[in-house]
Amino acid sequence: MDDLRVAPRSKRVRALGIAAALLASSTLSLPTPSVAAPGPQGAPPIAASHATQQVTLAEVNSQVDPAATHLPDLTDILRQSAEAELRAIDWGKQGLRRGYKVSAAITRLESGREGKTLRASCAVSAAVRDERGSLLVIVEGRARAEEEGSLLASAERGALEGAVHGAIHRLPEAIRKAQ
Fold first, then answer.
1. Are 20 and 105 in contact (CB under 8 A)?
2. What is the pLDDT of residue 15?
3. Sequence-distant (≥ 6) Cβ neighbours of residue 111 within 8 angstroms
4. pLDDT in tens, 97-138
5. Segments of 7-165 assigned E as strands
6. What is the pLDDT of residue 76?
7. What are phi and psi of 58, to 5 degrees?
8. CA distances from 173 to 10, 119, 169 (A)
9. What backbone torsions phi and psi does residue 6 show, to the nearest 5 degrees?
10. Dihedrals phi, psi of 115, to nearest 5 degrees
11. CA 4, 104, 82 angle in degrees (round to 5)?
12. What is the per-residue pLDDT for 7?
């Protein structure tokens, strides 16, 4: 599951349907070009955009019917979780060439009870666009949660957060391979 594989072109084309759903209604705010900042003594100036690489969350959405979940607001939880995961990555060490915008979507969230055991599973897709707005890569994270208790919302939240973690932490390698 931790293996990152680049799909053949035909599978990538099919995956664009997910990206289209994620990004169809969005307009991305792209950073404006920055001026060169002075480098160390005697060194040529360093472009400020290269000194502060950024990967930011542009949008979130859910393909899950809100009535089918026990969580109050899926997109708010997705946004908070995705932003926290993006902040946890040291993007300065990733060797990125430009800024990137991420769109995340919950593609599946299911839960149920079997006796005293609560089970939930979730899939989250993350699409990355470069500063020109070109689709660069799509990754998916999936997770299952099981717990004893009475609140399905807790199991659903655990599965959602695990799926977000799985998708977001695949981004550095996926972006490096695609740029």
1. no
2. 37
3. 69, 70, 118, 119, 120, 121, 152, 155, 156, 159
4. 788 999 999 999 999 998 889 999 999 999 999 988 999 999
5. 36-37, 46-47, 55-62, 100-114, 117-130, 135-148
6. 96
7. -90, -40
8. 21, 30, 8
9. -90, 120
10. 65, -125
11. 90
12. 42
d(CA 93, CA 87): 13
The rounded distance, in Å, linking the Cα atoms of 60 and 18 is 13
Residues of the chain with pLDDT under 50: 1-52
**Residue written as tokens 């609140």?**
151
Res 92: pLDDT: 85
Q: Is the dihedral of CA 88, 89, 92, 98 positive or negative?
A: negative
- The β-bridge relationship of strands 36-37 and 46-47 is antiparallel
Rounded-to-10 torsion of CA 91, 84, 2, 60:
-100
Instruction: For the beta carbon of residue 129, count every other beta carbon within 10 angstroms.
Output: 22
- Give residue 44's pLDDT: 40
